[in-house]
Design brief:
Its EC number is 3.4.11.5. This is Proline iminopeptidase. Belongs to the peptidase S33 family. It is found in: Cytoplasm. The protein is α/β, with parallel strands linked by helices and 332 residues long. It folds into two domains: 15-144 and 253-328, Rossmann fold; 147-252, no CATH class. The protein contains twelve helices and eight strands. Strands 1-2-4-3-5-6-7-8 form an eight-stranded mixed β-sheet, with helices on both faces. α6 (180-189) crosses α9 (234-249) and α7 crosses α9 (234-249). The model has no long low-confidence stretch (mean pLDDT 94).
Length: 332
């Protein structure tokens, strides 16, 4: 099957279901492509994002068995926007649980962008024998410098988008603006009574403010209509904002620089790894992709000179399809 434009056309999933994990969560998953094909796990961004059939465009369905997973509290997984029992290491364990549930001995590929790249690195370092290859986009390792990259009031994004940063900061009380992460965390994670409509709207507006900034700075040429649609999607708004801020204030339960340490990268040096990074990414700083490549020189790094953060930018999408086509011809 030949690529359609920058990616592959997909049919309906051949399988979908819910996998119970722990006492609280049920994970929603889908499978596309070739039932006995080379298995690839797609790890979405966020935290708190979700999967959709559009995520399958990178993978030749005549070769790949494509597994999409909505992470805890995200997408169609239940319960929505749930913070309990929801850490990086729960998510790593979930990938293993899903692999075993689907009878997959080893992933041919783990594919992750943005937060998905973080999770892919965590999984590969925890279970290197279960990963055949890695395709990573918009690298994020949750270091302090990365968290301050876009939302700091005097960071690069503030210099380029002072109006958007001002809107983001203005949503929180003036006395809390020195630490916007902590302020948004209080707004988004506080428990509210089910019948308190005023508190619910206050939390929803905070979620809109949090997400509006990220969406507006996520690509070089934002699709305004699409962004506006997302900002009216209440379930996505709450899950994405609540889970992101919960993970960010906890540094994703990682030690500073943990994923880039030699002793951790040594566990995965045998795994073929390709890094695709937008040169003008204002969500995940390009230096992180460079730092990963320098610490893992066995990897390949492609800087996309006409792209920001979004995987949907044409040159980024084209490169990701190309890399997945290359890996489809190999055995790991």
């Amino acid at each position: 099957m030949s690529p359609v434009q920058a990616g592959y056309a997909q049919s309906t999933p051949f399988d979908e279901g819910y996998l119970p994990v722990g006492d609280i969560h049920q994970l929603f998953y889908q499978q596309y492509g070739k039932k006995d094909g080379k298995p690839v796990i797609y790890l979405h961004g966020g935290p708190g994002g979700h999967t959709s059939s559009s995520n399958t465009i990178y993978f030749d369905p005549a070769v790949y068995r494509i597994v999409l997973l909505d992470q805890r509290g995200a997408g169609k997984s239940l319960p929505p926007a749930e913070l309990r029992d929801n850490t990086t290491w729960h998510l790593v364990a979930d990938i293993e649980s899903l692999r075993e549930h689907l009878g997959i001995d080893k992933w041919h590929m783990a594919f992750g962008g943005s937060w998905g790249s973080t999770l892919a690195l965590c999984y590969a370092q925890a279970h290197p024998q279960r990963v055949g290859s890695l395709v990573l986009r918009g690298i994020f390792t949750v270091r302090r410098c990365e968290l301050e990259w876009s939302r700091n009031t005097d960071g690069p994004a503030a210099l380029l988008f002072p109006d958007l940063v001002q809107d983001f900061i203005n949503h929180i009380p003036e006395e809390d603006r020195a630490d916007p992460y902590a302020a948004y965390h209080r707004l988004l994670t506080a428990e509210i009574p089910a019948d308190d409509e005023e508190a619910r709207l206050k939390r929803l507006n905070a979620a809109k403010a949090w997400n509006a900034f990220e969406l507006a700075t996520g690509s070089l040429k934002p699709d305004t209509d699409s962004l506006n649609d997302q900002l009216e999607d209440e379930p996505w708004l709450l899950a994405h904002a609540r889970l992101e801020i919960q993970y960010f204030v906890n540094a994703a339960w990682l030690e500073e620089g943990q994923l880039l340490r030699k002793e951790n990268l040594d566990k995965m040096r045998h795994i073929p790894t390709t890094i695709v990074q937008g040169r003008y990414d204002l969500v995940c700083p390009p230096k992180t992709a460079w730092d990963l490549h320098q610490a893992l020189p066995e990897s390949r790094l492609y800087f996309i000179q006409t792209a920001g953060h979004s995987a949907k930018e044409p040159a980024t999408e084209e490169k990701l399809v190309q890399v997945c086509d290359e890996y489809s011809k190999l055995d790991f």
